[in-house]
Design a protein that fits this description.
By secondary structure, the protein is of the alpha+beta class. It has helices at 51-63, 69-90, 93-103, 150-163, 169-186, 216-226; strands at residues 4-9, 12-17, 21-23, 28-30, 36-39, 42-47, 107-115, 119-127, 131-135, 140-144, 193-203, 206-215, 234-240. Strand 5 and strand 6 form a beta hairpin.
C-alpha cells in the first residue's frame, strides 16, 4: 500500500506518489521506490499493487502507441493480468496469494497532455472500483490513500478544500506535501518523500514536463521561505503541438 494524488490547476496538472514499498516476502519497507514515471503524453503515478506492475505498465506505455483513454485503461488492466500471471508461475502459493491481495488495491493517476486547437492538460484516475475517471474541475484534488481511516478521511477532506484556493503550481505542490506529511504521521504505509510529475501550459502550442522528488519537510521549508519551488524542479521535456 502507499499513496498517490492528482491535482488539476489553472494551466497545470500534478500527479504524485510517495516512495514507500513493502517487500511482501520479507515484510520490510523500502523508501526508494519508483512509483512515478514519464511516458509519451505526460506522467503516471501509481499506488498499491506491487513494483513489478509499475515496471510492466511503464514498459507497455513506452512500447505501444496509446491513442485513446479506453486503450489507456485497457493497457492498465492487461498489465495487472500479466503481473498476476507471472507471479503465479514464479512464486509460491503463499507469495502469489499475497501478491494477488496487494494487486486488488492497485490504482494510478495518469496525466494526459495533447493539442486540440490549443494545449490541453488533463488527469485520468484508473482503478477497479470506478474504472477510468477524468478530473475536470479546476483546483480539484483526488487522493488514493493507503487506508481510509477516519483520521485520513478528515485530512483528505481538509486538504481537498485547501486545494480549491491554490494560486499556482508551487502552492499546489506545497499543499500536496503538507497532506503527505500529515498522512505519513498516522500511517506506516507512507513515506515522507513526495515524487511529482508536473505538466505546465506555457503557450497554446507548448507544455513543459517537470519533476520534483523531495522530502516533504524540504518542500514545506522552501515554500514558506520563498513561495517558489522552481529550484527543486527538473525539466524533463517539452511537448509541442506543431
Amino acid at each position: 500500500m502507499s499513496i498517490s494524488m492528482g491535482l488539476i490547476g489553472k494551466g497545470f496538472s500534478i500527479v504524485a506518489a510517495d516512495t514507500r514499498t513493502m517487500n511482501i516476502i520479507q515484510e520490510k519497507p523500502s523508501d526508494e521506490a519508483k512509483k512515478l514515471f514519464q511516458y509519451e503524453s505526460g506522467w503516471v503515478a501509481t499506488c498499491g499493487g506491487v513494483a513489478a506492475h509499475t515496471t510492466l505498465f511503464e514498459a507497455f506505455l513506452n512500447t505501444y502507441k496509446i491513442k485513446t483513454r479506453k486503450q489507456l485503461y485497457n493497457a492498465w488492466l492487461i498489465t495487472v493480468r500479466d503481473t498476476l500471471r507471472v507471479a503465479k508461475e514464479c512464486l509460491s502459493e503463499k507469495e502469489y496469494n499475497e501478491t494477488d491481495m496487494e494487486m486488488n488495491s492497485t490504482n494510478a493517476f495518469v496525466s494526459i497532455n495533447y493539442f486540440n486547437g490549443g494545449s490541453v492538460i488533463e488527469i485520468n484516475s484508473l482503478d477497479f472500483a470506478y474504472g477510468r475517471r477524468k478530473l475536470c474541475a479546476e483546483n480539484s484534488l483526488i487522493v488514493h490513500p493507503p487506508k481510509l481511516t477516519k483520521r485520513i478521511k478528515r485530512l483528505i477532506k481538509e486538504y481537498t478544500e485547501l486545494a480549491r484556493n491554490v494560486a499556482d503550481v508551487y502552492e499546489a505542490v506545497y499543499t500536496m506535501a503538507c497532506l503527505l506529511n500529515e498522512i505519513s504521521r498516522v500511517s506506516n504505509w507512507v513515506s515522507k518523500t513526495l515524487d511529482c510529475g508536473i505538466s505546465i501550459q506555457i503557450s497554446d502550442n507548448e507544455i513543459v514536463l517537470l519533476r520534483l522528488r523531495e522530502h516533504v519537510k524540504d518542500i514545506i521549508k522552501q515554500y514558506k521561505q520563498k513561495h517558489d519551488l522552481s529550484e527543486k524542479m527538473m525539466v524533463c521535456g517539452i511537448k509541442k503541438g506543431w
